[in-house]
Prior knowledge:
Elements: E1 2-8, H1 15-31, H2 35-43, E2 48-53, H3 56-68, E3 73-77, E4 89-97, H4 99-106
Parallel strand pairs: 1-2
Antiparallel strand pairs: 1-4, 3-4
Amino acid sequence: MKQAIVARTDLGMGKGKLAAQVAHASLSAYEDTGSRTRNEWKGSGQKKVVLKGDGERTLFELADRAERKGLPHAIVRDAGHTQVDPGTVTALAVGPGKESVVDGVTGDLSLY
């Protein structure tokens, strides 16, 4: 079981901002996951990876792929209180789900 979080590299977010956006994405996708998958993921160590996405278009394309594979996913739009404008898409979480299925969506991306 695995979850992949894709954060945009083109926004120049600081480390704290990036961490917050990754956390928002992870939790949002987790909340939309069925209880059986949630429990399996929690019981297996909650594996996560944070990956680089080069822009908004990439995140939406990956979200579409996740949707087609039946994976839980969540796009984060920032409130705009600090470093980016309101509504800016900052991150995407894919999964939790079977590692091979998550990798089928995000496996070509580099680690952040």
